[in-house]
Amino acid sequence: MKSATQGAAAKLLILPLLFMETRGQDFGQTQFICTSVPKDVDLCAATLQNGVPSEDLKSTVMQLRETVLQQKETIMNHKETIRELTSKLNRCESQSAPDASGRRKESPSKNTMGDVSRAPADTLSQLGQTLQSLKQRLENLEQFSRTNSSAQASGLKELLQNKIDELERQVLSRVNSLEEGRTSLRNETEQRGKVESTLTSLHQRITDLEKGQKDNRPLDRFQLTFPLRTNYMYAKVKKSLPEMYAFTVCMWLKSNASPSVGTPFSYAVPGQANELVLIGWGNNPMEILINDKMAKLPFVINDGKWHHICITWTTRDGVWEAFQDGVVRGNGENLAPYHPIKPQGVLVLGQEQDTLGGGFDATQAFVGNMANFNMWDRKLSSGEIYNLATCSSKAQTGNVLAWSETSIDIYGGISKWTFEPCRQIN
Fold this sequence. Notes:
By secondary structure, this protein is α+β, with helices and mostly antiparallel strands. The chain has helices spanning 2-8, 43-48, 54-96, 120-147, 150-181, 186-211, 382-389, 421-425; strands at residues 10-16, 32-38, 222-226, 234-237, 246-254, 262-269, 272-280, 286-290, 293-297, 306-314, 320-324, 327-332, 346-349, 368-376, 408-411, 415-418. A hairpin with a 2-residue loop joins strand 6 and strand 7 (272-280).
């Protein structure tokens, strides 16, 4: 045993299997191998002779080095992404944070009430906050009205009303633009609905302030204002029409819309969206549709002035007449003869229905003011229509539909104002 040891001149050495510079990186536990090496033999060569080929070792080292480089590159990319996101977040916070004066900072891109926002959801949120602030101001005004004389409060109400009216137009214009550009976003539609609901409530509050004690004013002394062409501003009559073999429909209209005023009213029934419609579209004259049959009407009413219009019709031979300001302007026959107006439908003011109670198209919407919408289930005489147009004390109200605040529901932010037709035209 001793001679064998001397002949081999062996010495027990402990060598690591792998040794490499890792720049401070720890890649796991180190494995050690005990190997008997002759005294005069190169240590590295002896190590490689015991089951670890040189090529395999080099390959392993290269793979580990490549892995380290890939991990380092990934870390650098993540750091760059974090820096970009942090920068964007800081810019957003700086744009939305108020400055020392309490005003929000403007972003580099133009973002005013008249422009389409680049962030629709944020814009609608800001509009909602503005309206909430406006409601608080109205509550203060109501408190002031209760504790001060009506003469002092009226001046403030008039000034506030002018500001509210202008703000409404700007807000509705912004919402309408956002709707056209982002109709596919459900959350934005919900936000727009909230803004419209707030506008409707706001205008009702303003109306109550303007008219004072609601019980002291007749319920028919009001007008509806449709300021913009939209597909969500309209009024709906609460009750349906009965079956009618004749009718007369009258109303006051004021509009300066171009090229046409749109659709003052539409009545749809199941299976027929155009059961009874008054519409003006494009450069065409106004039309009356009955059961989707059409007659052109010689009305000229988009001059910015109040006009009283009436249309009469009987199912026998489909005879019709059109009156403007108490005077016959046109007549005809064979308009849906022997077709009675069907009951159980939906009567909408300000929009044309493509489906029962809906399917509105903004290009066909009415723009302007409307008041004293009345309907009868008979043909009024020329004298009766003249009394209506001249605000005679003998003027009658509709026996099918009489104009009243309690008979309609309004949607989408259309406004309701006090209206007395005789004072408007005299």
